[in-house]
Amino acid sequence: MWPFSRSCRSKARLVGKTVVITGANTGIGKETARDLYRRGARVILACRDVAKAHQAVEELKETSASTSNREQFKGGPGELVVRKLDLCSLAGVRKCAKALVEEEPAIHILINNAGVMMAPFSKTEDNFESHIQTNHLGPFLFTLLLLPKLKASGPGCRVVNVASDFYMVGNIHFEDLNMERNYKASKAYAQSKLANILFTTELARRLKEAKIEGITAYSLHPGVVSTELSRHVDSTLFPGARMMFKMLTPVIKSPQLGAQTTIYCVVEESIADQSGFFYKECARVTPFRKATDPEVAAKLWKESTRFVGLEDSDDLNKLLETASEELSSSKM
Q1: Which of 19, 49, 73, 295 has the most CB within a 10 Å radius?
Q2: Where are the alpha helices (DSSP H) in 133-226?
Q3: Which residues of 236-248 are buried (b: 16+ CB within 10 A; e: fewer)?
Q4: Contacts of 294 (CB under 8 A, 6+ apart)
Q5: DSSP label at 118?
Q6: How many angstroms separate the CA atoms of 315 and 241, rounded?
Q7: What is the pLDDT of residues 216-259, one digit of tens each?
Q8: Whole-number Å distance between alpha carbons of 50 and 97
């Protein structure tokens, strides 16, 4: 167990709140779902593999039914719901968002947790490199499509983006976002994690500029965590990398500990009026400037709207109106 990991101490209950968590069938996402479900929230597991998501739901119901003396878990659990979400398909993202917008009375929390790490080069059906679409473009579109619902569900709504300190070695390759000229899995992953933080920074700025109150945005580093994300490292780093990773288990966080900063960003009362900041070990930290550079953040936003097929506008209210009209008129 990682000896320097902090845990979320908030005793907040989430009764009456609806939380959407992408990639919640395993790892950090599942542990986040477990905690928020036990706090009384209606938790929607938005996952690519629906069968595994249903298995996770059964496990969470069984293991979360036990009593606990922690105040936040008293009063009974909430609900668990499964939704199909394939971030590798922009059409799939739109289909999931449409169903959520039309069928959920409210959405209070969106946690963009799903991701891929250091995978071999491949392209999605939309012709984007897998890291940049799964980790950034898919969540970017999903967030914008759900923002009108969050806006209507406020106040107290939050968007939480799970990033990584690996952003430090990343750059946004605007001239070659797919990194086809010189692909390296580690660089592709780092670029996507840098994009997570830049997106959070720009989203917070645009929310403030548009005078949209009641929604705050957070990005975070969960720590080095033992999850299925490391499944590709033998082929993209070096043979035996995954085994070496497992040998480091005593100094690597468990998924439960890795979920703590995500949970903190969801429930911590003291940061309710903060937005656009970066967190790790349940505390706000200052990232490298390249992760908050306003020009890069604005450019990435504009490029991302173009890539996902949305008509950008300097007025976020207008962009959200356009996104809402697109969803309502689509026949998915």
Answers
A1: 19
A2: 138-153, 185-209
A3: bbeeebbeebeee
A4: 201, 202, 205
A5: S
A6: 46
A7: 999 999 998 865 544 544 554 556 555 654 554 456 899 999 99
A8: 16
**Residue 137 near residue 129 (C-beta atoms within 8 A):** no
183 catalytic? Reply is no
DSSP 278-323: EEETTEEEPPPGGGT-HHHHHHHHHHHHHHTT----SSHHHHHHHH
**pTM, two decimal places:** 0.92
Contacts of 309 by beta carbon, 8 Å cutoff, 6+ apart: 90
Of 318, 82, 300, give the one whose Cα is nearest residue 192. Answer: 300
CA torsion through residues 303, 164, 204, 326, sign: positive
pLDDT tens digits, 19-52: 999 999 999 999 999 999 999 999 999 999 999 9
The SS3 call for residue 44 is strand
Spot the catalytic one: 37, 167, 189, 218. 189
